[in-house]
Write a structure and sequence with these properties.
Length: 167
C-alpha cells in the first residue's frame, strides 16, 4: 500500500522548530483517504498508526527534509521502515526542475482555488493560528497541506504515464 507524505513546520531542522502538520494520503486499494495530524497530535505512535499497512512512502524533497525532520522531531524514523521514493529527484531525471508548485504548473496540475502559497506562508499561517487562535488560518494551512499530498499522487501518475517511470 502506498502513502503520500508532506509536513509543515515552524522552520528548518534545529533549534526550537517543530512540525505543525503531518499530511498523509493513503492509497488503499479502491479507497483514498487523507489524514492530517496537527500540533500536539504529531507523535510517533500517531504517525505509525496512520501508516499501518503502508509499504511505500512518496514525498517531494522528503529524503532531505520531511523524513529527516520527523526522525528528529517527534523522533520517528520512517526511512528505516518504509520504501521511499522522492518525487523531486525522479522529476529531475525527466527534466522537471524547481519546487513542487513550479512542477505542478508546468504539468497543468491544479490546486483548486487555493491562493499562491509556499512553505513560508505555511509558517505564517501556523503562527496566526497558534498565537491568535485564528481557525481560518489553520483551515487554509490544512487545505494547502492536503493539496500537497494529493498532488504528489497526481505527479506520480504523470511520471508513470508520460515518462514510463516505475517505482
Amino acid at each position: 500500500m502506498d502513502a503520500y507524505l508532506d509536513i509543515e513546520t515552524t522552520g528548518f531542522i534545529g533549534g526550537g522548530s517543530y512540525p505543525t502538520v503531518v499530511g498523509i494520503a493513503i492509497d488503499f486499494p479502491g479507497d483514498w483517504s487523507v489524514e492530517q495530524l496537527v500540533g500536539d497530535e504529531i507523535t510517533p505512535a500517531a504517525i505509525e498508526h496512520v501508516l499501518e499497512g503502508v509499504t511505500t512512502i512518496y514525498t517531494f524533497n522528503g529524503g532531505s527534509f520531511d523524513l529527516p525532520f520527523l526522525a528528529w522531531k517527534p523522533g520517528v524514523d520512517l526511512r528505516r521502515r518504509f520504501e521511499h521514493h522522492d518525487l523531486m529527484h525522479i522529476s529531475r531525471r525527466f527534466g522537471l526542475r524547481g519546487g513542487l508548485k513550479r512542477i505542478e504548473r508546468a504539468l497543468g496540475i491544479g490546486r483548486s482555488d487555493l491562493p499562491e502559497m509556499d512553505g513560508h506562508d505555511a509558517v505564517l499561517l501556523w503562527r496566526k493560528y497558534f498565537n491568535e487562535g485564528n481557525t481560518s488560518a489553520l483551515e487554509l494551512l490544512l487545505e494547502y497541506n492536503r493539496a500537497d499530498v494529493e498532488n504528489l499522487h497526481t505527479l506520480r501518475n504523470i511520471l508513470q504515464e508520460q515518462h514510463n517511470w516505475r517505482s
